[in-house]
What we know:
Blueprint: H1 9-15, H2 35-47, H3 57-61, H4 79-99, H5 102-108, H6 113-121, H7 140-153, H8 155-166, H9 170-176, H10 179-190, E1 195-198, E2 214-217, E3 224-233, E4 241-253, E5 256-267, E6 273-279, E7 289-300
Parallel strand pairs: 1-4
Antiparallel strand pairs: 2-3, 3-7, 4-5, 6-7
Helix pairs in contact: 4-7, 7-8
Amino acid sequence: MKTPLEAPEEQIAEETSVKPEKPAASVIDTSRMSKGQREALELAEASRDPLDDRGSFASNLFIGRCDFGRIYPFPEQTAEDRAAGDPFLQKLETYLREHVDPDEIDRTGEIPPENFAGLAEIGAFGIKVPQQYGGLGLSQFNYGRAAVLLGSWDGNVAALVSAHQSIGVAQPLLLFGTEEQKRKYLPRVAGGEISAFALTETHAGSDPATMSLRAEPIPDGSEFILNGEKLWCTNGVKAGVLVVMARTPPKIVNGKERKQITAFIVDVDSPGLEITYRCRFMGLRALYACRAKTLSRKKARA
Length: 302
């Protein structure tokens, strides 16, 4: 049911994937924007999920649509799915209570090596990774329950485990990876090899359009050469493999050049990759974020 706050259908069509019969003019005036601002806007719009298909309740609020059907009735976890996750949740809670000392972690700024091993042993680094790739194969509901439990005990451990399998290698591969990539990397990260995420640069973070790290394909297109630096790479200090976001050669779309950003899987021990230093924080003192740079001889695959 349409509410008084809902935007007109014409505006919704212009700002979502709904395609009107005639091309609609942009509702955003770009005439006074700088070239960089226009590029940032175009990149964001090109990456946007269609609101009518996958958009969240919150994202729809930005176009004046209060679609309460997306949040009410609130989706409940099924009894069967909850039962599937209970054994792991019980193991995780027991392990945290008996082996993880959050006060000591905060004092030292380090998560003990035995905690990395213990969490890997109970499967905490592969919660949503399918069993065929060495993970637990649990649902997003059960992953959320684990995240709540981890966060209630120690924020540093929660950040380590969550970043590892949400913005780290596992989730992007589950969504977009090839079967070859899944077979190669998912057993590694599910088994406890830490993965990290590298997006932010000294001048680019929430605005990826200004990203400067570049990836150029070699002549046969089988690999790319990465060149640049990343800052605040979450989990980077302990990682064996990274997800690195890089600018790739532009494409021509509808007669206009469109900048491209591509995610690359990069092994930390690859020649040309250097972890230059660990970033320290006042809050999460055991957060393993780092600064990293790739030299022109670093090769990777998308």
